[in-house]
Design goal:
alpha+beta; Tetrahydropterin Synthase, Chain A; 6 helices; Type I restriction-modification system methyltransferase subunit
């Protein structure tokens, strides 16, 4: 009987020791004071789905669908003259309609980091300061005019697989492309 009690005490001591050790070694990552201050001064701003016509040679060739979200400074947001989401959407249209840095017809030249930095710089220029700290890509898609017509008409034609937008390093900008073909979702 005494042996059984001592064995139980030993098992409890070993269990408590292992739990204590694992809690000590699995501590939260250390965040510097500067990083913590920066994070506390920023706010996540969800973006809206927008559809931008891709214009070449004076004609619409297709549609670039994107949903971008942003990390922005709280102070910068509070100093704006209009709501941030509406200002961002307006500036994205100004920047992207007819823009030369979006050539989705040639997916090998699309550079996602350059796209994100160009959007960030353009937005900050319009907002009058360093308001946007980071651009987060939630969705990037390209639909040709034929794709849009087929989806709008509800035709049951076998669909082509969508073309992933790949940057020059081979990274896929949107890795959640639908299996069966072009997405039927629409933007604003």
């Amino acid at each position: 009987m005494l042996k059984l009690i001592l064995t139980g005490v030993w098992v409890c001591a070993v269990t408590l020791g292992s739990v204590y050790y694992s809690m000590q070694s699995a501590s939260a990552p250390v965040v510097s004071d500067a990083e913590a201050t920066r994070r506390a001064s920023e706010q996540y701003v969800p973006g809206e789905m927008i559809t931008v016509p891709v214009i070449k040679g004076g004609a619409v060739q297709g549609y670039f669908l994107t949903k971008l979200s942003f990390s922005a400074t709280k102070e910068g947001i509070n100093n704006l003259r209009a709501p941030l989401r509406q200002m961002v959407t307006d500036e994205l249209y100004d920047m992207l309609v007819g823009s030369r840095f979006i050539d989705v017809g040639d997916t090998g030249t699309f550079d996602l980091p350059t796209f994100k930095s160009t959007v960030k710089d353009g937005l900050n220029k319009k907002l009058g300061g360093e308001v946007i700290t980071e651009v987060l890509v939630e969705q990037l898609e390209y639909l040709t005019k034929d794709d849009v017509k087929r989806v709008a008409n509800g035709q049951n034609v076998p669909r082509q697989k969508p073309t992933a937008i790949v940057d020059k390093n081979g990274n896929v900008a949107n890795d959640k492309l639908p299996e069966g073909g072009v997405s039927a979702s629409s933007g604003h």
